[in-house]
Amino acid sequence: MPSLLSDDISEAVETGITPGGTTGAFRDVLSKHHAHRRKPPVHFTDMSDGEREEALKELGYPKFRASQLARHYFSHYTTDVAGYSDFPQDQAGTVKQRFFPDLITPLFEQTADNGATIKTLWQLFDGSRIESVLMKYPTRTTLCISSQVGCGMGCPFCATGQLGLTRNMSAGEILEQVRYAAAQARDGALGEPARLSNIVFMGMGEALGNYNAMLKTIRQISALPPHGFGISARNITVSTVGIVPGIKKLMNEHIPVRLAVSLHAPSDKLRDELVPMNKRFNTTQVLDAAHDYYMATKRRVSIEYALMKGINDQAGHARLLAKRLNHYGDDWVHVNPIPLNPIEGSRWTASKPEDEARFLDILHNAGIAATLRDTRGSDIDGACGQLAARVKDSGVLRTVQ
Ligand code: SAH
Ligand code: SF4
Fold first, then answer.
1. Residues with a CB atom less than 6 Å from ligand 1
2. In this model, does residue 19 exceed pLDDT 70?
3. Which atom of ligand 1 sits closest to the CA of residue 201?
């Protein structure tokens, strides 16, 4: 679908080039190809306040209409301009196209955990597919979102990693996942009405590899309505493979988002094998950056650790991990081991329950907070970080009209 926007507004679109642009410290670690892809249409959430007002002016509307649009979007989760009773209807179709083009279209939904988990497969404007997972817990409702089409980091145990990176997603594409889920939760899709309270960047992609769009997204998730969805930044988690310059940049934004670092191994020798990016940013650099992040934000950092049978789940691994984390002091991390959800054809499998238990015990005895991460939706490949755009033709699958 071609963008209907004028050039000056198109300037606001994410370029697809990674933060730091031509001078970026980690530009070269990302695919060279995605920058040449077509850009998604510009959405209201991609625009600055000035750009929104300018676009309204071109249509002959005064500035204050921008906050009306924002209120409908962020407070009522609706983009149906024709249904806005307080908005002039003479150009409703044009306004809709200009500000709220349909960036993501649900193709399929799968439910699990007795309806408390919903995974949605989305189609983007260029036919790309991504996924998000909505999960209801007793005290919170969490959405796991995708920030890139595929991922260029190549972790061999990860389904998304096998796809490679197609392109970065725009802020609009990322935020639309949030709007849709917030409306679903409100409308009782999870069994009873719920308020979307937490966001985790643990779907497809490496959010720090799509920095500008990620930041725009975080700002509009956390700002109070009508400027954003009003989900506290403290309830947003950015998970990273360990892009050190990205961690530092995020730290310097002074936004209290939680950082999760996918460590998966306590030594460089092992991590080099499991997380190729370790050759670029090694365990010492990644842990130093994670600790700096803790010091700057006073938010405990999560350490993600996929337990793989016989590979990284032995007592020695747990002891070394504890030693390396305690080196920085007490109470600054929370380790989240998760049993590996093996992908097809993988040489790695999930740890034995007794090895998981021992791993946790060793960390606890060393004074480190650790909880086995929940594998919500793992029966539908919906557990965060294990998404693959693989459409199943069986199971609890619903085609979205
Ligand atoms: N790219 C980011 C965020 C997306 S992945 C990152 O790597 O942190 C979210 C989490 O799921 C990461 O900790 C990732 O390592 C983990 N993950 C990926 N594949 C997995 C699998 N097959 N089993 C268990 N965890 C997995
Ligand atoms: Fe990318 Fe994260 Fe998967 Fe690694 S684990 S390939 S960084 S999505």
1. 151, 157-158, 202, 206, 239-241, 262, 304, 306, 338, 340-341, 343, 384-386
2. no
3. 3
This prediction's pTM: 0.89
Contact between 336 and 302 (Cβ < 8 Å): yes
- E-strand ranges in 198-324 read 198-201, 236-240, 258-262, 301-307
Q: Give the contacts of 78 (CB within 8 A, at least 6 positions apart).
A: 72, 84, 183
Average pLDDT, the chain: 87
d(CA 30, CA 116): 35
pLDDT in the model for residue 8: 28
Residue pointed to by tokens 């639309």:
176
Active site residue 158: no
The reported pLDDT for the residue numbered 387 is 57
Q: What is the mean pLDDT of residues 275-299?
A: 97
Is residue 53 annotated as part of the catalytic site, yes or no?
Answer: no
Ligand 1 centroid from CA 277, angstroms: 13
Residue 395 pLDDT greater than 90, yes or no: no
